[in-house]
Structures are given as structure tokens and as C-alpha cells.
Amino acid sequence: MRSFSVCRPLLAACLSLALYGTTTHARQTGSEAPAAEPSALQLAIMQEVEDFLLEQASSLNGVAQAGVSPPNERLFENCHERTYFLPNKGALRAAMSVGVRCLDTGKTEYVRASLAVNGHYYVASQTLNMGQVIMEMHLEEKEGDLLRLPLASRNTPEQLLGQIANTRINAGSPIRLNMLRSPHSISKGQPVHLQVQHGALLVTQQGEALGTAELGGTIQVKTPSGKVVMGTVISANTVNVLF
What we know:
Elements: H1 2-31, H2 40-56, E1 62-68, E2 82-85, H3 87-90, E3 95-102, E4 108-124, E5 139-145, H4 157-160, E6 164-165, E7 180-181, E8 191-198, E9 201-209, E10 218-222, E11 228-235, E12 238-241
Parallel strand pairs: 8-12
Antiparallel strand pairs: 1-4, 2-3, 3-4, 4-5, 6-7, 8-9, 9-10, 10-11, 11-12
């Protein structure tokens, strides 16, 4: 009988705790007000921002999806004529603010938005050494959000094939344009032919490139005597000395 009398209050306490917890949860749930639906003005701005972002993303080779947070309606009450722009030098990002110029008031406001562009990019199928020419067998196609990649990695095969690696590129790494140079360029440390032309007279000698330059660019070259001269790249191994 004693054991029963001890368990009975304990059972009552457990039931009371369970009921109290349930009631509290119900009150908390019931106190949460439903989120207000965006107004007609908010919806109009959200749609305009989405259209603007999709237009900006159309230059990328991918499928774009945009999301826009409801703007503060109070800030746009007298903003009936609107234009949109991208801050930060017009860079598209996964999460960003879109600028809104109100032509009626002359004010500028901002709306939060997100953007994803699903498309194809290319990684090295194997480790590429410096000086190696990029061929089709070296490219492996991947798919993902292009905005999560560095800008220099959003390339097409046409931009990559035939270029020369100016650094080591590890297998699986996205191939960036700043990792490559033109086959007509000259790289630092490369032996080059120096030529000096004066009328019909053409003088040539060997030299060593002290920098990297593309076709038509200027570059410094050290002669065998140690003298440094400036010239223009006219081919993959020839520099025309400037007077």
C-alpha cells in the first residue's frame, strides 16, 4: 500500500507536467500571427527586380533563377517611376542588393535578392604542367551554379583550347583564363629572338624575356651582355626592339 501511495502523486505530477507543457505549446503556437501577404506595390517591385536580374544573367551560359525579398513598402510609397541597377561595379552574386532609383523623388533604395545560374564549366581532367597546350582531352565538363565560381572560370571550350598553361593546374581544378596565355605570347624567362630593323638593315640576337606579354604587347628583354631593352612582341618567340 505504501508503494502505491508514493507512485500515485508521482503519476499525477507527470500528468500535470505533460498537460502544462501541451497547453504552453498550444498557446505559443496560437500566438504566432500569420505572415502578411505582400502588397500590390511590393509584388510589382519584386517582379521588376526578378526580371532585371534574369536579364542581367542572360549573358551567362546557364539557366537563371532569382528570388527577391519583399521591400519595405514605406520606402517606396511615392516611388512610381523606377529604374534598377547593380551596385559593386555591376557584379552578379549569389546574394546581393539591387539598387532602385526612384525617378519621382530622386532617392535610391535597395532590395535584397538572390540569384543562381545553373550551367556548365570546365575543370582539368588531369594535372597540367606549365607550358602545356590545352587540348580537348584535358577538359572535363561539370555542372553547377556559375555564380559560386570565380569569374575567370566561366569559360567555353573555345576560350580554352589551344591556350598554354602559364602555371601548374591540378586535376579537378576549374580552369581560369588567368591561368592561361595565348600561344602567340611570350612568358617570363623564355629565350627570344631580338630584332632591330633600320631601313633595309635587320640585326638579330638572342635574349631572355624578363616578363610576360601577349602579341602586340611591350616586354623587357635582357641581352647576353646584360643590357635591358624594351620591345614589342611580334610572334611567340620574337621581339622587335623599340628605339
